Amino acid sequence: MKTNKSDNPVQDNKETSEPFKKITGPKSDLNIKQRVAVAEDFFQSDATIRTLLESLAEGVVIIDRTATILLVNKQVERLFGYTKEEIVGHPLNSLLPDKFHAAHPKHVAGFFEKPKIRPMGLEKELSARHKRGHNFPVEISLSHLETTSGSLAMAFIIDITLRKNAMNDLESRNEELDAFAHTVAHDLRGSLSALIGYSDLLNDREVNLNEEQVRESLDMIYRIGRKMSDVVDGLLLLASVRREDVIAAPLDMISIINEATFRLSQKIEEYGAEISLAKDFPSAIGYAPWVEEVWYNYISNAVKYGGVPPQIMLGGELIEGGYARFWVKDNGHGLCQTEQSQLFIPYSSRTSFSEGNGLGLSIVKRIVEKLNGYVGVESEINEGSLFSFKLPLAKERLQKA
Prior knowledge:
Elements: H1 18-23, H2 30-44, H3 47-55, E1 59-63, E2 69-72, H4 74-80, H5 84-87, H6 104-113, E3 118-119, E4 126-129, E5 135-147, E6 150-159, H7 161-203, H8 211-243, E7 249-250, H9 253-263, H10 265-271, E8 274-277, E9 285-286, H11 288-305, E10 311-319, E11 323-329, H12 337-342, H13 361-370, E12 374-379, E13 385-392, H14 395-400
Parallel strand pairs: 8-10
Antiparallel strand pairs: 1-2, 1-6, 3-5, 4-5, 5-6, 7-9, 10-11, 11-13, 12-13
Helix pairs in contact: 7-8, 9-11, 11-13
């Protein structure tokens, strides 16, 4: 948020909002000044009340029947960016988004007809308008008091931006977990059914299997069991990424890649994949076990979706902004723009647990972003694909750059 360059609101920059212009006009209405003075006197006369108002975490706006702002506390100044002098004596609509302006006078009148302590906008999303013009979510409760000059309404305002963001994040995570649970359950059920089928076949004495058929069935049982174990590993990895705050350190990227390719050695041999590495990799920082999973997933996908045979190139380079970019390039069919846009969405067809170690590109994205990095993809039909991730440079390499 930008700070004001002067105390004169008329001289503020171009970001100044329309409501701000409205409320900084001349205060020529003597009646309004009198009402403001009465309210000031009422609250100033009792030091305890005034101290209480100023110590509240909520912003307090006091208005009369005409919805004119008569008094505010310091928290209102912090919430809305105005000084007391800029808003006292002006319409309450000045602090509201435009969409509430037409209906609000009716609500004010209704409150003064039957005043009572109550929350405002039940089952509705309320928002207020900052001096700079942006809206922010709020929670408001109303109260009232009787003075010698008439009834006043008190609005207690809380900025719930952080709570709203947390709720949205929780909702997003719950949706992701629902999709995740559905995908994992589907994969495990399919694997378990196949495992039971092969076990029943081996136990069926009425079925005569030769030695080769028995060996093939046992091999399939092993493969299915391995796949189910990988799904569990993926679950544990996802849990650790969500829960743990790891300490980032300089990465030995060649060693990490070697570990990932060793784990994939059987698959690489099965597909006849050819993998070539750059001679040198930039020194980045991260958490080695997680970064190994990123390479594992990218290389696994390159082997599966590459050409025949898969020809895979691994590399890294320095880029602007203090980052290193690492990539895996394959010679596969390539991806159209629609397919690319779906890649890192949780548990789409290309991020299923049905292949690989159960990690999925969506979890790759979560890992890299938790390490303060970024993921990306470049691809054209019949030109293969390049999957990349960016990580912050190690300090010593950053100083040299």
